[in-house]
Amino acid sequence: NAGGIRVIRYGMTRNWVAGLKVVTGTGDLLDLNGGLVKNNTGYDLRHLFVGSEGTLGFIVEATMKLTDKPMDSTVIVLAVPEMSDCLAVLQLFRRDLVLNAFEFFSHNALQKVMSTTHLAAPMATDSPYYVLLEFEHSDTAALSRAETAFANCLEQDLAVDGVMATSGKQNKQLWQYRERITEAITPSTPYKNDIAVRPSQVPRFLAAIDQVTARYFPEFEIVWFGHIGDGNLHLNILRPEDWQVTDFKSACDELNHHILDVVHEFRGSVSAEHGIGLLKKSYLRYTRSESEIALLRNLKQVFDPNGIMNPGKML
Ligand SMILES: Cc1cc2nc3c(=O)[nH]c(=O)nc-3n(C[C@H](O)[C@H](O)[C@H](O)COP(=O)(O)OP(=O)(O)OC[C@H]3O[C@@H](n4cnc5c(N)ncnc54)[C@H](O)[C@@H]3O)c2cc1C
């Protein structure tokens, strides 16, 4: 059930699965939904298998929906001083344009990208946050609407500066500020979290996590980036240079429980897109209730009574 930068446009992979053939842990071959568009006949088992990480059965065939080829697109990067204004910018652009992506990153993320890649600053003005959005257009009317939205952002003080690409080459250049963050922070052995809340909650959620981190480990630096348009944030805590990797990791493991308490408080997800696997098994309870986990275990028992399908994962 993967989904990344373009979830705001296309949704998660689940939305595109029209049918599955699955062999369960009991050896039964199930033919689920068979590519039907309409099939209102009770529980949709197809969706139980999407994102189940191989714990219920083995998918042997998938029928996927297709869509139109993407049209031309243009990238805009805006300097947004207030986190809460990122959402106002989203509303403004979404009203008049088809958005393919709506990403954000913090100023220190941009600085690290610039220092490791030697890319020049995207604009003259610094800001605590930046929004990168990509919109689709088939005609010049959409481009004019984008220019108007851009101007409105500046007029309403939602953004203090910005740049709109004028060519495919410039689109690619602007994407680099977002796409090269992971590479830029790798030397600091970041402790990563892939968390999500409802988009409207993002500003309060981000502030709460900054606060909890500063309370326990004020020396830790956080680099934020992610798919703010769908509420998915990538939280990266950087190892201070004078900390050993093992000490840093155990400190972060301890801190993580406080961070995940915040995720729980916001009714968020401990794994927006990366799944649970082994690493996040003990975190499941921050997003799923005790009774839900008990039901998941019961379902596992139904489809895989001998525990042979990806044993030990997820639950
Ligand atoms: C650097 C990096 C960036 C990432 N960024 C994103 C992102 O932006 N968005 C996102 O959604 N994810 C992201 N991911 C996670 C990524 O989606 C998953 O790692 C990837 O989808 C797994 O695909 P794979 O082909 O490697 O599958 P595998 O690792 O082989 O399998 C994934 C899971 O599916 C199960 N499985 C495999 N085949 C079958 C089958 N036939 N039937 C049933 N179960 C099966 C496996 O048991 C396993 O649990 C990222 C991962 C990395 C390493």
Automatic annotation (TrEMBL):
Residues 1-69 form the FAD-binding PCMH-type domain. Keywords: FAD, Flavoprotein, Oxidoreductase. Transmembrane segments: none annotated. GO terms for biological process: respiratory electron transport chain. InterPro entries: FAD-bd_oxidored_4_C, FAD-bd_PCMH, FAD-bd_PCMH_sub2, FAD-linked_Oxase-like_C, FAD-oxidored/transferase_4, Vanillyl_alc_oxidase_C-sub2. Its cofactor is FAD. GO terms for molecular function: FAD binding; oxidoreductase activity. The keyword Oxidoreductase applies. PANTHER family: D-2-HYDROXYGLUTARATE DEHYDROGENASE, MITOCHONDRIAL. Belongs to the FAD-binding oxidoreductase/transferase type 4 family. This is FAD-binding PCMH-type domain-containing protein. It comes from marine metagenome.
